[in-house]
Amino acid sequence: MSDAAYLLVHGDREYLLRPGEEFGTDLGVIEVPEDANPGDTVETHLGTVFEVRRLRGPDLFDHLERTGAPMMPRDIGLVIGHTGIAGGDRVLDAGTGTGILSAYLGRVGASVTTYERDPDFADIARENMAVAGVSERVTVRTGDLAAEVDTILADEDSFDVLTLDTGDAPTIVAYAPDLLLSGGYLAVYSPFVEGTRAAVEAAREAGLVEIETFETIQREMDFSSRGSRPSTAGVGHTGYLVFARAP
After folding, report:
1. 3-state SS track over the chain
2. N or C end of the chain, less CB within 10 A?
3. Separation between Cα atoms, residue 188 and residue 112, nearest integer Å
4. How many domains does the chain have?
5. CA–CA distances in Å: residue 6 to residues 13, 20, 103
6. Average pLDDT, the chain
7. What is the CATH number of the domain that holds 42?
8. How far apart are CA 158 and CA 155, in angstroms?
9. Which tens digits make up the pLDDT trace of 106-125?
């Protein structure tokens, strides 16, 4: 059975399944052929037709097993855009959680080493990387990056990008100049402004340059016969992002 999953779609119904896997629904039992390919159709035993689709990033966000609140796609887009993460880059990450960020980065071709302190969460993240088809590019380690920094510095080459989504990010930021290649980027995500300020202060003390901080807000638009306006559903705030660069 292939590790990577496909999206099976019928109308507004979507199921994440691997080739060779069987799943029961009220529309019938779906059995995905081992040789399934995007664009194929699969019928349930009741005759309902599902389309086979290749997974995209937003599908991972919607369907991977969650162990907490994952980073939103818009935040991930900013991380990729501001750091220029691309194929061949080496990324060190802390605060794996569900693994959404790591999966996105693996799918753009980066080699990611990510640390998760909770062993159960780490196991789920490894399974999620398999479902996303990026197990060969994403290594999920169980442990605390802050406690492993000295070992990493002794045993591994420097990284192109350091991404942090963890409460002890300021502690790790202090090591960023040693962990990163010259010109490499730091990206810190925090849902709280207090943690964001601490990360900025740590980046300054560490001698990082080009330090920038953003609040991420996204508003949906409503279009009706009466007119067009931003949605009143909420302000769309998710968190804060700090970017900095190793000198």
Report:
1. CCCCCEEEEECCEEEEECCCCEEEECCEEEECCCCCCCCCEEECCCCCEEEEEECCHHHHHHHCCCCCCCCCHHHHHHHHHHHCCCCCCEEEEECCCCCHHHHHHHHCCCEEEEEECCHHHHHHHHHHHHHHCCCCCEEEEECCHHHHHHHHHHHCCCEEEEEECCCCHHHHHCCHHHHEEEEEEEEEEECCHHHHHHHHHHHHHCCCEEEEEEEEECCCEEEECCEEEECCCCCCEEEEEEEEECC
2. N
3. 16
4. 2
5. 14, 11, 15
6. 93
7. 3.10.330.20
8. 10
9. 999 999 999 999 999 999 99
CB 121 within 8 A of CB 95: no
In this predicted structure, the answer to whether residue 179 has a pLDDT above a threshold of 50 is yes
Enclosing domain of residue 184: 60-245
Q: Give the residue from 17, 32, 54 where a domain finishes.
A: 54
- Residue for token digits 């799943």? 23
